[in-house]
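User: These chains co-purify. Model them together.
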Amino acid sequence: MMADKSEITHKGEERVQALILAAYHSIAEKGFEGLRLRDVAQQVGLNHATLHHYFPTKEAMVQAVVLYVTQRLAQTATFTEGTPMEQLRAHLHALQQCMQEEPALFVVLSEIGLRAQRDPAIRAIVQQQTEGWHALLTGILEAGIRQGDWPRDLDAEATASAIIALTQSFNLINAKLLPIRAEQAMKQLERWLELK
Amino acid sequence: MMADKSEITHKGEERVQALILAAYHSIAEKGFEGLRLRDVAQQVGLNHATLHHYFPTKEAMVQAVVLYVTQRLAQTATFTEGTPMEQLRAHLHALQQCMQEEPALFVVLSEIGLRAQRDPAIRAIVQQQTEGWHALLTGILEAGIRQGDWPRDLDAEATASAIIALTQSFNLINAKLLPIRAEQAMKQLERWLELK
Amino acid sequence: MMADKSEITHKGEERVQALILAAYHSIAEKGFEGLRLRDVAQQVGLNHATLHHYFPTKEAMVQAVVLYVTQRLAQTATFTEGTPMEQLRAHLHALQQCMQEEPALFVVLSEIGLRAQRDPAIRAIVQQQTEGWHALLTGILEAGIRQGDWPRDLDAEATASAIIALTQSFNLINAKLLPIRAEQAMKQLERWLELK
Amino acid sequence: MMADKSEITHKGEERVQALILAAYHSIAEKGFEGLRLRDVAQQVGLNHATLHHYFPTKEAMVQAVVLYVTQRLAQTATFTEGTPMEQLRAHLHALQQCMQEEPALFVVLSEIGLRAQRDPAIRAIVQQQTEGWHALLTGILEAGIRQGDWPRDLDAEATASAIIALTQSFNLINAKLLPIRAEQAMKQLERWLELK
DNA sequence: GATGAATGAGCGTTCATTCAT
DNA sequence: TATGAATGAACGCTCATTCAT
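Assistant: Joint model of the six components:
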C-alpha cells in the first residue's frame, strides 16, 4: 500500500532530473533571462509550489543545471587509449558531433559562462570543470610534443586555452552570425594542429 | 540669451550618448537580465520617465547599445596601410589592447551574441557587423596568401571565422574561468598564423 | 481537519464574486475610466497581485462584470404566466423597481454599451443579451397583437426596440439631467402601450 | 511684419476650435477613456505643451467639448414657424438626419451623459442644455394639446422626457447592439405621437 | 507663443517565494 | 508531499503637467 523509502527517493530523484532537464531546455530556448519556475514546473506536470520542495530557491535549480551541463560536457573528454594525436582528434570530433546533435548544450554553456562572471557559486562550478578540461588538453598536447607529434615550441597551455575558447564560441557561429559553418573553423583548428 | 539649434540638439545627443553608456555598463555588470531602465536613468541623473523621451522602449535602447558596441569594435579594424601581415598583426594587437583596457566590451559582446539568437532585430545588427569583420579579415588573408605571406592551402574564410570566434570568447578567459591569461591564447593564434 | 473540495472551490468562487461586485461598484462610481485593479483588490481586502490569481487580465475581469450585469438584467425578464399585457406590465414594473432600488445597474449598463462599440468581446456579450431581450419583448407584443390587446398595426419589433432604448437611457434621467423623474417617462410609455 | 492683435486673436480662436474638434473626434472614436492631450495636439499639428496655452488643463478642454456638443445639438431644435405638430415632426426629422449623418455626435453625447454623473461642472452644462430642450418640447406639446393635435390627457412633460431619453440612447442602436435600425424605433415614436 | 526636457504619480502585470491546509 | 492562495517588490510604460529657454 505504501511505497518504501528507496522508491520514494527514487521517484524524487527522477523528479529532480526531470526538473533539471526542463530548466535546461528553457534556458536553451529563452536564456536565463526567460527562465521561469512556473514554466519549468508545468513542463514536468508539477504545481509551481511543489517545485520548491525539490529546489528551495531558483538559484539552487540554476546551479543544478550548471552542474548537469558541465558534467555532460566532461563526458565528451573521457578516453584513455590511443596516441596523443588520436586522442585529441577523437576529442575534437566528439565535440563537433555534439555541436551538431545538440547545439543547445553550447548555447546554455555560453549562458553559464556569462553568468559565472557575476555569480561566484556558478563560477566555482564552471572553473573547476574548465580547469579539468584544460589540464586534460594540456596533458595530451605535452605528451604529443614529447613524442614528436607536435613541434617542441608549441605552447601546450596556450593551445589548450585556444581550443577551449574556440569551442565555447561556436554557438555564435551556429546562430548564423557568421557567414560560415562551424565545421570550417573547426577544420582550420585541426589543420593548425596538423591533425591530418 | 537664447541657445542656438545645434546646441540644443547637441545637449540632447549628449544625453542619448550618456544613456547608452550607462546601459552599456549596466549590461557589462549585470547582464541583459539585470538591465533596469530605472538604474540607467539614475546613473545619468534622470527620472526614469524622462528616459522614454530619448528611447521610446527598452528594446530601442538595447538596440542602441548593440550598435554602439559593434561600432566600437569595428573601429579596431579600420586601417589602410601596411602589408597584409602587418595589417593582421596590428588588428590582433588592437583587439588584445582593447581586451586589456576594456574587458567589458567583450562581456557585452557575448551578451549580445546570446541575445541575437532570440531577437531578430539584434541579430540583424550583429550579423551585418560580423559579416563586415569577416570580409575584412578574409580580404587581408587572401591578399597575404597571394603575396606568399601564408601558405597557398590556408583557408582564408575558415581562418577568419576562427579568429572571430576566438576573439568573441575571450571574455570567458578574462573572467578567470581558464587558468591562463588571454594573451597566451592570442599569442598562440599569432604563432599559428606565423605573425612573428 | 481537511476541507473538502467543494468548500475550497466555494471559497474561490466567493472571492471571484466579491471581486466582480467590487469592480461593478467601482465602475458605477467612477466609470471604466476610473476602474483600478488596486482599488478593486483593496475593496475585497486583497493584495492587488492576488487579483491576478482570479483574473489573468483586467480585460477578463471587465468581461466578468459585463456578464454579471447582463445576467442581472436578464433576471428581470423571466416570467411565464399571465396574459401578454400582464407580462409586459410586470416586466416594465420590474425594470422600474430595479431603477429605483439599484440605479447603479443602469449606469454600468450604459458604460458597457459605450465600451461595446469599441470592444468586440464586450459587444458580443451585450449583443447576445440584448437580442434575447428584444426577442422576448417582440414575442410578448406579437402575442398581444394576436389577442387584440394592441392594435394590428403596432410594429412589434420597433416597439420592443423603443422600450429597450428608453430603458437604457434612464440613468441619464436618474442622474438629474432631466427635470423629471424616471417614473413619469415610464408611465408615458405604459400609456402609449395602453397598459392601464 | 507683425500681425495685429485681432489677427492673433483670430488665429488663436481658430486654434481653439480646431483643438475642440480634434478632441471631439478622439472622444467619438476612443471615448473619454482614450482621450490623450498629445493625440489631440498632434492632430492639429501642435506641440503638446503648446496645447496648454489654449487649455490650462485637460478638464478645461473636456468642458469646451461638452459645450460644443450641446450647442451643436441645440441647433437642431431652433425653429419658430409652423403648427406644433409640424414643429415636432421637423424636430424629430432633424434629429434623425443628424443621427444618420453624424452618429459620432450621439456617441459623444452618451459619453458626456455618463461623465456628467461624476463631474459637477459637466453636469451643470448638460443640465442647462437638457432643461432648455425639455422646456422647448414641453412647450410644443402643450401648444399642440391646446389646439387639439394631441389628446387632453397626454402628459406633456413626461412625453418630452421620453423623447429625449429615446434620442440619447440611439447610439446604442446604431452600434448594432439591437437587431433593428434606429429609424424603426423613431418611427414608432412618431406613430405614438400620431405624427402621420 | 512655442517647444524640448523633465517629472511624479500611477498603472497593469510579473514572479519568486511563503504558507495554511 | 502537494497545492491553491497570497504577497511584496519590482518592472516597463503612460500621461498630464510644469518649466526654462
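Chain D has a mean pLDDT of 83.
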